[in-house]
């Protein structure tokens, strides 16, 4: 069951990413085309701004001559303390207005793509959260606290069995929970399902802000109100005022997808761990998400996934060893080699497999040891050529001139690269 709804959630997240990746380049290309076509009509604005900023009197006069050659009338420019530019046009501004309208339309199209995808993300998260609750309450109905709930006679007549009535009450409870805030959701997980959620601490403020921004977009046109400011942390609200309009950028959307993807997969896996402590499939799910974000150089998200796996004492030691190596890699890439140098120097992997010894040596920049053992690992198929070429832990090895020599001399690498 866990595998099924985790897989469906993963499909929803990937489908959302694929949709944005497919449509965004089309809109970007269209926007560039419109901007190029509009450039000639916006030239008077450009010259007016240059003229306003120019301090040299002679150069200012030259710009004024150029301006009058292409525009009959005048354009006055004002720049406030925050560097916001405004202008007033005295003359026929038809072509300028049309150019701005076309550019505004393409920008609106991009904003709508990000906005609709953002709302779709939270809908997928809500569905996944409801699946987690259904799974738990159906397995442990007493934990739903429905024993003392009442059902009307009309409702009772529609049920064939007591189980149907029980499911009805569980559905009602879950619907009530879903109407609450994200903080309410997490409280249910902590207090009723007894999950620790320790991995959420570094993400909580961001997750709450994302959820509140979604509410603004759906219910208030994106316009900031007092509810939003009262719910989000000071770090998110310090430069935002009531009446300001919030948008969803591509960067904001990507970050929201990454964080909600990670946290709710870990929530499901923590519940899975509680119910089936020794199930290896759980670890595979966490390893995959940790690796995917490692390859994307999203060190924070990858580190969180790997920390979850490392602290799962029921998982095989090999999985936890890989997780520890990935954590060191994330720290090294995010904070520099000095941040892990001392800890790595104290680690002894002589009792581990050769693969883990080489991986640790790659982190420690002991390239000679790595290159002397890579041929053996490749020949035994303990290390795949694709992993050597793609895995971030071997990045510095790939930059070493000896890597090129390995690719030309090792039979396994030659065969792989020739395909």
What does this structure look like?
This protein is mainly α and 419 residues long. The protein has three domains: 2-22 and 111-254, no CATH class; 35-105, no CATH class; 296-417, no CATH class. Helix content is 71%, strand content 3%.
Secondary-structure map:
Blueprint: H1 2-38, H2 43-53, H3 57-70, E1 73-79, E2 85-91, H4 94-139, H5 153-157, H6 162-178, H7 182-191, H8 204-219, H9 226-231, H10 234-237, H11 250-275, H12 280-295, H13 299-310, H14 317-335, H15 338-345, H16 354-363, H17 367-379, H18 385-390, H19 395-398, H20 401-409, H21 411-417
What's the short version?
By secondary structure, the protein is mainly α.
- Helix percent reads over 70%
- Terminal CA distance reads 39 Å
Q: What letter string, H or E per element, gives the SSE order? A: HHHEEHHHHHHHHHHHHHHHHHH
Secondary structure: number of strands: 2
Structural class: mainly alpha
Q: Whole-number radius of gyration?
A: 29 Å
- The strands making up the biggest β-sheet line up spatially as 1-2
Low-confidence runs (pLDDT<50, min 5 residues)?
none
Largest sheet: 2 strands, antiparallel
Mean of pLDDT = 91
Broad shape: flat
How much of the sequence lies in strands comes to: under 5%
Put simply, the count of helices is: 21
Number of domains: 3
């Amino acid at each position: 069951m866990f595998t099924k709804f985790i897989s469906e959630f993963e499909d929803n997240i990937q489908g959302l990413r694929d949709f944005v990746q497919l449509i965004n380049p089309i809109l970007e290309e269209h926007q560039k085309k419109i901007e190029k076509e509009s450039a000639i009509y916006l030239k008077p604005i450009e010259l007016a701004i240059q003229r306003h900023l120019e301090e040299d009197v002679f150069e200012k006069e030259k710009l004024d001559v150029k301006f009058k050659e292409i525009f009959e009338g005048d354009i006055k420019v004002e720049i406030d303390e925050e560097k916001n530019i405004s202008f007033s046009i005295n003359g026929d501004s038809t072509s300028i207005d049309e150019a701005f309208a076309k550019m505004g339309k393409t920008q609106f199209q991009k904003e709508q793509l990000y906005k609709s995808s953002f709302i779709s993300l939270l809908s997928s998260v809500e569905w996944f959260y409801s699946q987690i609750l259904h799974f738990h309450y159906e397995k442990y109905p007493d934990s739903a606290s429905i024993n003392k709930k009442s059902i009307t006679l009309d409702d009772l007549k529609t049920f064939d069995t007591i189980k149907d009535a029980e499911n009805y009450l569980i559905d009602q409870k879950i619907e009530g929970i879903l109407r609450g805030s994200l903080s309410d959701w997490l409280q249910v997980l902590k207090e009723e399902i007894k999950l620790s959620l320790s991995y959420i601490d570094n993400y909580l403020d961001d997750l709450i802000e994302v959820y509140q921004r979604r509410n603004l977009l759906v219910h208030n046109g994106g316009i900031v109100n007092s509810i939003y400011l009262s719910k989000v942390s000071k770090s998110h609200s310090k430069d935002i005022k009531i009446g300001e309009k919030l948008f969803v950028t591509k960067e904001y959307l990507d970050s929201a997808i990454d964080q909600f993807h990670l946290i709710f997969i870990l929530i499901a896996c923590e519940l899975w761990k509680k119910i089936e402590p020794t199930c290896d499939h759980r670890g595979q799910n966490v390893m995959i998400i940790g690796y995917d974000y490692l390859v994307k150089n999203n060190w924070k998200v990858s580190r969180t996934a790997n920390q979850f796996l490392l602290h799962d004492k029921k998982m095989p030691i090999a999985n936890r060893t890989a997780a520890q190596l990935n954590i060191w890699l994330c720290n090294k890439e995010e904070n520099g080699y000095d941040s892990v140098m001392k800890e790595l120097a104290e680690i002894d992997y002589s009792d581990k497999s050769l693969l883990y010894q080489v991986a640790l040596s790659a982190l420690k920049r002991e390239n000679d040891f790595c290159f002397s053992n890579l041929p053996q690992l490749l020949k035994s198929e303990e290390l795949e050529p694709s992993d050597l070429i793609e895995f971030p832990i071997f990045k510095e090895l790939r930059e070493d001139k000896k890597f090129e020599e390995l690719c030309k001399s090792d039979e396994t690498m030659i065969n792989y690269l020739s395909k």
